[in-house]
Amino acid sequence: MATTYDAIIIGSGPNGLAAAITLARADLSVLVIEARDTLGGGTRSAELTLPGFIHDVCSAIHPLASSSPFFRSVPLENFGLEWVHPDLPLAHPLADQRVAVMHRSAEETAASLGIDGPAYQRTIGALAARGEALFDDLLGPLPFPPRHPLAMTHFGYHAWQSASGWARRTFRTPEARALFAGNAAHGWLPLDNLLTAAVGLMLHVSGHHAGWPVAKGGSQMIAQAMTAYLQSLGGEVRTHWEIRSLAELPAARAILFDTSPQALAAIAGPRLPDNYRRRLLRYRHGPAAYKIDLALNSPIPWQADACRRAGTVHLGGTLGEISAAEADIWRGHLPARPFTLVGQQSLCDPTRAPAGCHTAWLYAHVPAGCTEDATTLMLNHVELYAPGFRDTIMASHVMRPLDFQAYNPNFIGGDIIGGVQDWRQMFTRPVARWNPYTTPAPDLFLCSASTPPGAGVHGMAGWHAAQAALDSVFHGHS
User: Fold this and answer.
1) In angstroms, how far apart are the furthest CA atoms of the chain?
2) Pairing state of beta strands 45-46 and 55-56?
């Protein structure tokens, strides 16, 4: 390890690695420091249940990666990353063996929704046709003016609304409303809140524009490919080093934090003004994830054929049922049927399990810091739509909200999305500043999911923070 660097990045999630790559591509010397013994942050994989069963520890399905301007700009396929797609991105079963399906094609999805097909094509289909332009503007701080004003105007017309209100006004059938509600629930907010329609729209559009792929071999392959590319550019990495103070670091002209705002405040200490540190400490975190990984002796025996073909299955019932469950967790109550996501990566990636076997990745939305046992609720929820499911389970591994926090200190209270993304905190992550990646200390920057555009494996927060450092510290050095 050298004694001085142009830039040091603390934390090795996709945003930290994206920042490091962006700076290394500008011919700067870069060091990435990771507290754990493996790189990746939320993109790690491990044999959590039985030997030969590869489970994604945190992120599993990657709807924003292929749409991300950063990921489109880097040759990660040359470093071992291969995206694979399930037959269907998403299925959403309802009672009486009804099921709503999101196909790769917006047209095919619209055709499957019956009387709601024309409305789907007129709204989501039209946005998907402008997908690349939309994601160029959406995955970052709001540009003024937007680079693609017509696409953004069309998106904004729908996005400012609540998910529940938009779905009821736009669609007539329970299937179409539930399909949209499940995607909107990825925002971890009550669906009556303004701007929650934006999350649903983005996930629908990404599914049609670039799909919902998985990384062949596990999400860890994303971090491995990014690390290999970084090292090919001369970047360095060091693991198993937890930074508690800036005094521990080698000399550097810029330091970027792929951490929570609270960790930035603790590590930077007196380098930051007291008022700014207090604002960082007031940053709000939201509900938590409760996760179960399963080793299975066969695929999940879903009643609906579409669920047997989908990479992701949303379990939450109707729009009304999902809305009620999401409202419950914000009131601190564990719902009887929490909104649950099922990832079936092994359907399209046989490297995840021994021959004839499969993996399942389940997580539910629960209250922040929840200590109640949600395992039985979640397994019963799957069994409701897949009778005989329990008989396929060979082994399981559970991560409760506080397990997530212990695993990654950025996941405060089990919040895996880097903080609440409501109207108060969507555009002011982590505090209100003209450039949200900068701090009052001119050499310190924040590049985590607690900055725009928020959660997801897209690398854009790291890219934008690196651009801020290039402009202000390195004066556009390239």
Assistant:
1) 66
2) antiparallel
Would you list the DSSP string of 284-333?
Answer: ----EEEEEEEEESS----SSHHHHHEEEEEE--SHHHHHHHHHHHHTT-
CB 382 within 8 A of CB 362: yes
Nearest Cα to 377, choosing from 400, 406, 410, 405?
400
Q: Could you tell me if 67 and 209 are in contact, meaning their C-beta atoms sit under 8 angstroms apart?
A: yes
Side chain identity, residue 203: L
Asked whether 342 and 312 are in contact (CB, 8 A), the reply is yes
Distance of CA 184 to the CA centre of its chain: 13
The number of CA neighbours under 13 Å toward the Cβ of 306 is 19
- pTM, whole model, 2 decimals? 0.96
Angstrom distance (rounded) from CA 421 to CA 148: 23
Q: Which residues contact 237 (CB under 8 A, 6 or more apart)?
A: 12, 31, 32, 33, 34, 39, 227, 230, 231
CA neighbor of 369 nearest in space, from 435, 286, 436, 307 = 286
- Choose among 13, 4, 1, 17: nearest CA to 466: 17
Q: What pLDDT tens digit does each residue of the chain (478 aa) get?
A: 778 999 999 999 999 999 999 999 999 999 999 999 999 999 999 999 999 999 999 999 999 998 899 999 999 999 999 999 999 999 999 998 999 999 999 999 999 999 999 999 999 999 999 999 999 999 866 666 788 889 999 999 999 999 999 999 999 999 999 999 999 999 999 999 999 999 999 999 999 999 999 999 999 999 999 999 999 999 999 999 999 999 999 999 999 999 999 999 999 999 999 999 999 999 999 999 999 999 999 999 999 999 999 999 999 999 999 999 999 999 999 999 999 999 999 999 999 999 999 999 999 999 999 999 999 999 999 999 999 999 999 999 999 999 999 999 999 999 999 999 998 898 789 999 999 999 999 999 999 999 999 999 999 999 999 999 999 999 866 5
Please list, in sequence order, all residues whose beta carbon lies within 8 angstroms of the beta carbon of residue 270, skipping any fewer than 6 positions away.
Answer: none
Helix, strand, coil percentages (3-state) for the chain, rounded to 5, are 40, 15, 40
Rounded to whole angstroms, the Cα distance separating 158 from 141 reads 19
Integer angstrom CA distances of residue 244 from 10, 18, 311, 328, 406: 10, 23, 40, 36, 16
**Domains present along the chain, CATH in parentheses:** 4-43+219-284+418-472 (3.50.50.60), 83-214+286-407 (3.90.660)
Kindly give, in sequence order, each residue whose CB lies less than 8 Å from that of residue 353, ignoring residues fewer than 6 positions away: 52, 53, 54, 295, 296, 346, 359
